[in-house]
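Why does residue order matter? Because the sequence determines the fold. Keep that principle in mind as you read this record.
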Amino acid sequence: MTAPRLLVLQPSQSDPLAKLGDWLEADGIELHLVSLQDEPAPQNLDGYQGVVCLGGEMGALDDVQHPWLADARRLLSNAVAQQLPTLAICLGAQLLAAATGGQVRKGPQGPEVGVLLVAKRDGAGNDPLFADLPWTPDVLQFHSDEVHVLPPGAEHLAASPKYPNQAFRVGTSAYGLQFHIETTPEIVLNWAAKDPESAACARSHHFDLDFLAEAHRDFEEVWQPFVTRFAKLVRGELAPAGCSGTQLPLV
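Structure:
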């Protein structure tokens, strides 16, 4: 059987697949990485069984400086229309929201940075990816913009006290996560060095290597099983939201 193939859109070299790539490949998923700053995005999603869109330091609507953002939004919109399993992280989540009728803006309460908790919303209890998560999982936050208004019909899945739209699902299987689950301690320390103004919004010990290493062990315990469920969704072994029963594999 041919391995399912995911299109991975990477807006910035500063936010690589890292752990997320390791987890997906361990679950038998083939990854086609497109560095949007360096190469053109595909014209369509033919031959892909899902999409991942990573984060970056730019804004979701900064098309003047980064014209390829329009391609990312187009592909995310197409993924929703085609009901392809999609996982969009931080900037990716903002692009997903903007592509499907939501609104993104600069966060009025300033940057949200550090190892913090999010809380599941009621809708998460019936979601195939979120139902088995702890009610208040640890995540890594490092963003200044927010999804201000969710897309029409989106399911709200997780919130934080500072910015409520932390996770959402558009359609049956396109997920936006405002927070990060893919990082390593070294990636986070690099972000802090590049953006000390935002990093200063976190408690200082959140950028201690030992603290970050322990936090990432906690992340892996919670979020690797989440990614395994996403891989099952890609393979057609897990029914999307609103469906029941097990589907036949899509490949």
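The longest strand covers residues 5-10.
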